[in-house]
Amino acid sequence: MPRGRLVTIEGGEGVGKTTQVELLVAALGRARIPARPTREPGGSPGGEAIRRLFLEGDGERWDALSEALLLFAARRDHVTRLIAPSLAQGIWVVSDRFADSTLAYQGYGGGVALEDLAKLHRLALGRFVPDLTVILDLPAEIGLARAAARASVDNRFERLDRAFHERLRQGFRQIAAENRARCVVIDGSSDPQIVHRAVLGAVEGRLRVAL
Ligand code: TYD
After folding, report:
1. CA nearest 39: which of 70, 78, 2?
2. Is the pTM of this model over 0.85?
3. With the C-alpha atoms ordered 73, 96, 118, 53, is the resulting torsion angle positive or negative?
4. Residue 133 in contact with ligand 1 by CB distance below 6 A
5. Going along the chain, which residue ranges are E strands?
6. CB atoms within 10 A of CB 121
7. Is 143 in the pocket of ligand 1 (CB under 6 A)?
8. Which of 43, 55, 125, 171 is the most buried (most CB within 10 A)?
9. Residue 45: is the preceding peptide bond cis (ω within 30°)?
10. Quick check: CB of 72 below 6 Å from ligand 1?
11. pLDDT digits (tens, 9 = 90+) for 60-106
């Protein structure tokens, strides 16, 4: 049985990741490729427990390095208990955020040294990386306005300032530039169906499947 693939969808607030995860899982299903959606922080029961610790409370609850430690603990649980076993069974996994969010938010946004985050990644996950990462790109003010229009807006990061969100966007672009074989940047400002077609094109081209 061929191994499944891990596709991660990344980007700042309000870029439309969740919609794109749902549309991609549905398209894979229509192509008779077994696929499951998941998310970070969270995904596994242990990961979801850490998600609650991480997202609740005020903005000062954890410093950025403590956040990174929590996130990699959650991610290790998610990978070992859900993602890796699924891939081994030939099931594709599409994750709403993954390790690049920690690089962008806690690294570029929060000031944790990127080399420390790379060390944490190696400790928690070894060489495990996604097969494909789609980075949805959007000007910070459009993403924040979209996030503010949603009902469930109130997570700790949506309250941070414009400059933080601008650093996030530049961080994601830098990650894409440094990992060209794994990452593709897609403009998230268009209609969700147009973005979806671009995502399908990236999956077909990079992972050699027909959707
Ligand atoms: P969520 O409500 O899922 O927001 P979104 O719809 O934007 O994904 O909350 C996740 C929040 O956690 C989001 O603000 C980004 C933040 N986050 C990090 O700071 N680092 C990480 O590694 C991950 C996975 C998420």
Report:
1. 78
2. yes
3. negative
4. no
5. 6-11, 35-39, 92-96, 132-137, 183-187
6. 20
7. no
8. 43
9. no
10. no
11. 889 999 999 999 999 999 999 999 999 999 999 999 999 999 999 99
